[in-house]
Amino acid sequence: MTLQEKVQLCVGKSFWQTKEFEKYSIPSFFMCDGPAGLRKQQLGKATDMLGINDSVAATCFPSAVSTANTWNRKLLYQMGKAIGEEACNQNVAVVLGPGINIKRNPLCGRNFEYFSEDPIQSGILAAEFVKGLQSQGIGCSLKHFACNSQETSRLLSDSVIDERALREIYLKAFEIVVKTAEPATVMSAYNKINGVYCSDNKKLLNDVLREQWGFNGLVVTDWGGMNNRIKAFIAGNDLMMPGGSDYMEKDVLEAVKKGDLDEAYIDKCAERIIKMALKAQELFKEEYKADYRKNHQLAVKIAEEGAVLLKNEDDILPLKEDKNILIVGDMAKDVRYQGSGSSHVNPTNLEHPIDYLSSYDYAQGCDINGDTTVELLSDLENKAQKAEAVVVFAGLPSKYESEGFDRKHMMMPEGHIKMIETAAKANKNTVVVLFCGSAVECPWQDNVKGILYMGLPGQGAGQACYNLLFGKANPSGKLSESWPYNYSDVVSADYYAKSRDALYLESIYVGYRYYDKANVDVRWPYGYGLSYSDFKLEDFEMDEYKVKVKVTNTGKYAGSEVVQLYVGQNNPQLHRPLRELKQFEKISLNPDESKEVIFELTDEDFVLWDGSFKKVKGNYRIEIATSSRDICFYKDIEVDGVEISVPDWQKDSWYENCKGNITLENWQKMLGRKYVPVKLVKGQFTMDNSVMEMKDHSLIMKIMYKAVEKVISKGFDGKIDYDNPDFVMLMNSSAGAPLRSMQISGGIKGGIFKGLVEMANGHFIKGLIKMIKG
To answer: How crowded is residue 286: how many other Cβ atoms within 10 Å of its Cβ?
Structure first.
């Protein structure tokens, strides 16, 4: 192959396909989104990376918020396998998922698509998903590598983070999956990490991913996420997607010619793409038929196991079917079953709760947007007073959380709160069924008797809700993220998503690692969840590194318990969390049945990052628990290892006890450098700037912003609608994207965007010349 052909091979052919070169017998292969089910868009039709346009029908499984709450390795494997089967059926070679970024803050608009605030849980469950998916010969794309834990300015932001937090929290889940499941591809994230874009990041993509972890697969950019192709080749970022543009092709060829880029880097990237393409070609030689009916029932099963029973006062649940029950809420008829954005699936068989509850009386309570009226509340009150029990379906409508933007607050819609409060006041036997992709404030908690959290339960939501409410299935989910009482309790509340850059001031103290050390009360702790049955943990033993405990189902229903093992160092020299999850096991038991759970600790369970992972000498507490706040047994042991020196900045710092506020000065001392925020200066704009941020400094960009707004509004009946999550997502992903990303995603060739940058900098004639010359 010529140099130019190799460079062109490393760019997609279309939105979802790689390039084929028939004269070299190099085939193309097809990729599509799929962390909760396939989103295959037909070639030749409208395509997008945000889940707006139509896609081929596929099983819509529960989102990661629900699958993580199952804590069930086997179910994650089965789900991955089922998606792999459907990928074989639809000739998809690579499924873009799972997403395993850390749930750093409840407001992240994409939390529903991520597993947990804990990297160990995320890594273990995601690894099983990947193993299941790839058992069918299909490749997965593990994403978004790395530190992509906010949607605000996601294509521009710099995740400014200390190395310890990076290694212990934000890279750990990726490390687990890469080492134990060998994903076929890894997707580089949009953002920078400490000043370097992930697409160009040699430390991230080569030194850590390939050399330290042993990854030998393909690295693909997120769609429109390439920054500098020359640096990306050196870093080992193999494939730029989507295709269609000639972004930096001339620059790459010139760099090789000048000796600034060794052609060997391009050869390696091309070889990895060819290897993947040839494997995909073999995979689809025979036609495959997936069993979509079977997969639907699996989706129902996962939704049932992912449901978390948060409250069950007076054992109000399960309900008896012969009761006079009132069903309340628009979500009963139009269930919120998945998130918005690239993971959006066109379901094969969507079931709403009302499909199974139509024999009961119904009150709407609110509309699809979560708004209510006096008339709706009055109707609800009258009907609730006559019922024996009320079941309210509520949560977050789709406009509240989505890919492309972060939530503005942690509150539910006012209409949903009024609906719940009205029902609870009129009827003491009120149960709330919650649908949302992350934690919400629940000021009405004490007024209702039951709370069943469904997360985003996929296309089998209707049957799963029915089975759980009436005891045909027993809730066994446990929270994979902490639920604070109020947003102000969140450690990063004062600074999260409030600037272009993502500042990780809290370091390793995310989720329960913060709440437990700071002794902050939470509404429901990490790992928490009730059951219709009761479980007794007893006969705790620990011999060397072997930990045993017996679990007995002492209740009336068959059910499951999740036994969690935490490790914490007592009186550490270098600051550490109070406890950290290291292992877990979900076991199913019939009434009066007992099973022994055995954990084997390893040296890895006692390490921290100090230039490398080191097993630290000290006294450790080993805890057996059913949540991070429900500790059943513990034992303190001495562990041999290295001694860690304490940095000068630690004494009396926030990181010693997590009390009070984190100061910028304290953080910068811990970080080891000063943080300098980006300043927008006209005359210094580059392809790295967005239309959205330049419009206040440049007339041409203001005009362009209005033009983008108008073009996007055509897909919304001509309405510029910032209340519509799809509209906001499209604006943030176009006008809010750097110009280079607009060029790549739009498949635009030539010098149009370079010319626009010159114009934005006040050089109109120079800009015109660049546009004409290309």
So the answer is: 7
Cα dihedral 521, 524, 530, 536 in deg (nearest 10): -30
- Residue among 33, 158, 200, 222 flagged as catalytic: 222
Q: Which of 562, 578, 570 is nearest to 530 (CA)?
A: 562
Radius of gyration of the chain (CA): 26
Residue type, 289: K
The whole model's pTM is what? Answer: 0.96
Contacts of 417 (CB under 8 A, 6+ apart): 411, 443, 444
Tell me the CATH class for 293-477: alpha beta
Q: Is 696 an annotated catalytic residue?
A: no
**Residue 306: in which H helix or E strand, if any?**
helix 292-306
Give me the sheet containing 450-455, strands edge to edge: 308-312, 450-455, 430-435, 389-395, 325-328, 361-363
Token pair for residue 512?
């329960």
10 Å CB burial of residue 293 (0-12, 13-18, 19+) is exposed
Are 221 and 188 spatial neighbours (Cβ–Cβ below 8 Å)? yes
CB-CB neighbours of 282 under 10 Å:
10
- Answer yes or no: are the C-beta atoms of 155 and 189 closer than 8 Å: no
Question: Tokens 């192959």 identify what position?
Answer: 1
Check if 293-477 and 533-644 are the same fold.
no
Rounded mean pLDDT of 160-177?
98
| Cα–Cα distance, 573 to 33 (Å, whole number) | 45
Tell me the per-residue pLDDT of 403-450, one tens digit each, with 9 for 90 and over: 989 999 999 999 999 999 999 999 999 999 999 999 999 999 999 999
| Structure-block tokens of residue 710 | 């108008």
Query: Is residue 58 a contact partner of residue 345, using CB atoms and an 8 Å limit?
Result: yes
**C-alpha–C-alpha distance, residues 616 and 621, integer Å:** 13
Strand, helix or coil at 570? coil
Instruction: For residue 177, give both structure tokens.
Output: 């999956």
Question: Does domain 533-644 match CATH 2.60.40.10?
Answer: yes
Q: In this structure, are strands 361-363 and 192-193 parallel, antiparallel, or unpaired?
A: unpaired
∠ Cα 548 525 408 (to 5°): 145
- DSSP string of 514-567, one letter each residue: HHHHHT--EEE-TT--B-SS-EEEEEEEEETTEEEEEEEE-SSS-EEEEEEEEE
- Encoding tokens for residue 267? 């050869």
- Nearest Cα neighbor of 295 from 80, 588, 30 is 80
Q: Each residue of 191-212: b (16+ CB within 10 Å) or e?
A: bbbbebbbbbbeebbbebbbee
Map tokens 């390795």 to a residue: 73
Q: Is 757 exposed, middle or buried (0-12, 13-18, 19+ CB in 10 A)?
A: buried
pLDDT over threshold 80, residue 44: no
Residues 291-304: tens digit of each pLDDT: 999 999 999 999 99
**Residue 315 class from Cβ within 10 Å (0-12 exposed, 13-18 middle, 19+ buried)?**
exposed
Strands 559-569 and 580-589, by their bridges, are antiparallel
Q: CB under 8 Å to 584, separation ≥6 — which residues?
A: 71, 121, 124, 562, 563, 564, 565
Model confidence band, residue 286 (pLDDT cutoffs 50, 70, 90): confident
Kindly state the DSSP code that residue 156 receives in the 8-state scheme: T
The helix/strand/coil state of 80 is: helix
Domain boundaries, the chain: 1-26+195-283, 293-477, 533-644, 691-773
For residue 164, the cross-strand partners are: none
Structure tokens at 218: 């393909």
In our burial notation (b when 16+ CB lie closer than 10 A, e otherwise), range 662-681 reads: beeebbebbbeeeeeeeeee
- State the residue for tokens 């052909």: 5
Q: Is the peptide bond before 242 cis (omega within 30 degrees of 0)?
A: yes
The arrangement of strands across the sheet holding 535-543 comes to: 535-543, 546-553, 594-600
Q: By C-alpha distance, which of 284, 280, 337, 297 is closest to 82?
A: 297
Q: How many residues does the chain have?
A: 774
Confidence band (pLDDT; 50, 70, 90) for 630?
Answer: very high
